[in-house]
Amino acid sequence: KVIKMKTIIVGAGSDLGVHIDGAHLGPTQLLNDIASFYKGDRISFIQDEGIIKSRNLSDRRKNEYEIDRFNTALYKTIVEKMEQKYFPILIGGDHSVAVSSALAATKTNTNIGIIWIDAHGDFNTFETTQTGNIHGLPLAAIAGYKNEDLRYFHDGNTIHPSKVVIVGARSLDQGEKENLKYAGITVFTTEDIKNRGVEAVMDEAFKIAGEKTKGIHISYDIDVIDPNYAPGVSVPEFDGINVEEAMKINEIIIKHIEEITSYDLVEFNPLRDIERKTEQIAVNLLAQIIAAADRKDKYGKIDLTSTQADTNKINTAN
Question: What is the pLDDT of residues 47-98, one digit of tens each?
Fold first, then answer.
């Protein structure tokens, strides 16, 4: 017997967290792409028109007010939908939008873990950031490590650092490394994935994030993939994972769908893409997770054949 989950797609069209333009266009592009197979409800928040982003190198709090305003509205919407038993899939936007989605998950589920799939740690504080780009600070805010100003709208728990796992990191600032060590965050690097394999790393990530928790939030930054395969991101980092590994990570997430409270896919920048390479990968990841959410049976098993069929369908459409 197949039990339909109520899935909601939330488009968070903001690139206020990074000095590079374009990620705010990602959600609209991907929402258009998935319209051929996603027939559920949709909510889209597009960046306020007319905002002139701060690009001052000495500004360590770039666009903080505008980001807080955007994230407050986003947070309230996701909390409301999660209270109505929806499974939210957030499409960003830069990674600062995940402050809203992850904390909304903690608001409705109280005690959760998080797996942060990203080339970057995003664990800077306002004191350690070298750029002032707030998309480099969200995970610290989510884990309750300083950055209180980025979560003032949230009156629930943060995610305990012992339940926070980063997967695919390969670019960490020195101050950020010290923050991660002090907070006690588990970090699996791209090298760990290459040496140990995707399955071993992700299995351990789920054990850590899922131990004595009531669910796991997934935040998937597409810049974890090497820019030779996925160039359409604002801050590319070379020596990343390949497409097969990226899809394998998603397949393992799907196997754990019963544990997943919510899912982000962020940082697709169509202005930086080449021949729609990154766009196609992003659509495939979304096709997999949407199909999985819609085909969960009473035992929590997933029909991976049907999931792949939807992926093939969108490949043909695009």
Answer: 666 678 888 878 999 999 999 999 999 999 999 999 998 999 999 999 999 9
pLDDT digit string, tens, across residues 97-112:
999 999 999 999 989 9
Residue 12: beta bridge partners?
45, 92
Catalytic residue at 223?
yes
Catalytic, out of 19, 95, 154, 256 = 95
Based on the residue annotation, tell me whether 267 is a catalytic residue of this protein.
yes
95 is catalytic: yes
Is 122 among the catalytic positions? yes
160 is catalytic: no
Q: What type of residue sits at position 104?
A: A
